Amino acid sequence: MQRDLRLDNVGRRYGLRGPWVLRGIHLTVPPGALIRIEGPNGTGKSTLLRLLARIDAPSEGRVSGAPRTAYVPERFPTALPFTALGYLTHLGTVHGLSRPAATRAALEWLDRFGAAAYARTPMAQLSKGSSQKVAVAQALLADPELLVLDEAWTGLDADARAELERAVAERTAAGTAVVFVDHDPRRLAGARDATYTVHDGGLNRRTEQTASPHNGPHTTVVVQGRSGATLPAEALRIATGADETAPGTHRLTVPASHSDVVLRALLTTRPPWHVVSVSRETPVPFEAEAESRR
Amino acid sequence: MTSMRALLRYQAALLARSQRWLPPFILYAAFLAVGVQSGQPVLDSLGYAAAALLPVAAWLVRICVSNEPPAARSCVSAAVGPGRAHLAALLVALAAAAALGTAAIVVVTLISDPVGADHQARVPRLPAGAAGLLAALACALLGTAVGALTAWPVLRSTGRAVPAMLLAALLSVVVTGSPAQAAVSGLVTGSRSGTVPMPVLPLAAAALLTAAATAAACALTSRRST
């Protein structure tokens, strides 16, 4: 089965004579890609995501490829007659898991997002933030091949936001393509493969300066190996900076959301690298910038 | 397929837990309480029970199709495709209508007199019940078709959809040429002549029409906004 999702000259409008929301869109989403879609409100970002998730069909053009897809909507309703765990178990089986596996995965993801206490709470009694956690857990349950996130971070608390970034990093490292819209320009900065702007119904690829230290929090990892050994390709791909400080000792700068993925790559390669230190560095200019924005 | 089974279970749980199935079930029970009494000729009562099932099936479809908030429907649609998600909702509504109809047919068959309309000719209970079941299934199927064609995504505004559903349900019961009308009038005529008709042809026609209506509604799901 073709796992690349492709939009060829795709357009979408509502109704037979409605104005075009999107037109002439060409986009390829290969496995493992992390793609951000941005643009002002009401320009068709959500429409584009719905086309990618194949919830909506294009009015013209062609969408091809059929990855197993999970979608997180902008606002998730609580008007469902289930408990959080009950809903997630149903969705897990809909995503193709067996019932026991779905329950297990549901509990694990609720726990990761700090919502384990709400597993048996009826959805109708969940807060907005907790129901958003259920929406996100629903999408991550069954290790999808394509993950479409429409403002999935909105409404989550800080811990859950960071956990979702790490989950996205894990998924992309495992080959899941992730396409997301988020109002925070720093979201997964430094780790994105491409950023597109929706403008006048069209899509423009934006070039970004990935190596800029202003691009969100980073983690510095110092590792030691045989002198002359090359670092795992995955670690190098993710790292925004790498230098050999002494023979066999390397210092890697990686987006904070991806530190676990890099460490896993370093520790599971044969022979494994020795981790000397891991430290979180938050560039001062970025903090000052964030402060001034508030 | 496993995902279809999971979808059906999810939709069935949505319907069962929402309790929105109660009003149509109560309405149907009231219909029967008014129109069917013990000791009446069996085929007449079966015809009445079958005909009344049609609008109930259409209503159940309306409930199942609108049971899921749009955002939750989008999550399921992304996983299995919007057409399959819609198909599951329609099938659950049909199954609920068929189960309700079967229960009603069994009760009506047992409490009615096994006689023709003249209270003279013998009408055997078991074949009469089987004929009633076929007619009820034909009505459940056609009601599902009516519901599918008068709910989202075919008709989106409630103001037009509900009158359209009621009118279409009424016409499906009374207009000559409709499989439901054929099945029901077959029972009524059979009661007069004291013979049990087997409405196999109307059932087949209803199944075909419903399959076409279902396919059309499912194909539209990805083209319409919510």
Q: Mind explaining what this structure looks like?
A:
Chain A has a six-stranded mixed β-sheet, sandwiched between helices. The longest helix of chain A has 16 residues, at 158-173. Chain A has 294 residues and is α/β, with parallel strands linked by helices. Chain A is built from eight helices and 13 strands. Chain A has a domain at 218-293: Alpha-Beta Plaits, CATH 3.30.70. Chain B has helices at residues 2-18, 22-35, 42-66, 70-80, 82-111, 125-149, 158-174, 179-193, 200-220. In chain B, helix 5 runs antiparallel to helix 9 (200-220), helix 6 runs antiparallel to helix 7 and helix 6 (125-149) packs parallel to helix 9. Chain B is elongated and about 60 Å long. The A-B interface holds A 14, 50, 53-57, 59, 68-77, 79-82, 86, 90-91, 93-96, 135, 138-139, 148 and B 2-3, 6-7, 9-10, 13-14, 17-18, 68-72, 74-82, 222-223, 225.
Task: Encode the helix/strand succession of chain B as letters.
Answer: HHHHHHHHH
Number of separate strands of chain B: 0
Biggest interface: A-B, 33 and 27 residues
Terminus-to-terminus distance of chain B: 27 Å
Shape of chain A: globular
Low-confidence stretches of chain B: none
Task: Report strand % of chain B.
Answer: under 5%
Q: How large is the count of helical segments of chain B?
A: 9
Quick overview:
The complex is a heterodimer of chains A (294) and B (226). Chain A is of the alpha/beta class and 294 residues long.
Keywords:
A: 294 residues; alpha/beta; Alpha-Beta Plaits; 8 helices; globular; B: mainly alpha; 77% helix; 0% strand
SSE layout:
The complex is a heterodimer of chains A (294) and B (226).
Chain A: E1 5-13, E2 20-29, E3 34-38, H1 45-52, E4 60-64, E5 69-72, H2 84-94, H3 99-112, H4 128-140, E6 146-150, H5 158-173, E7 177-181, E8 194-199, E9 202-206, E10 218-224, H6 233-238, E11 241-246, E12 249-255, H7 259-268, E13 274-281, H8 284-293
Parallel strand pairs in A: 3-7, 3-8, 5-6, 6-7
Antiparallel strand pairs in A: 1-2, 1-4, 8-9, 10-12, 10-13, 11-12
Chain B: H1 2-18, H2 22-35, H3 42-66, H4 70-80, H5 82-111, H6 125-149, H7 158-174, H8 179-193, H9 200-220
Helix pairs in contact in B: 1-5, 2-3, 3-5, 3-6, 3-7, 3-8, 4-5, 5-6, 5-9, 6-7, 6-8, 6-9, 8-9
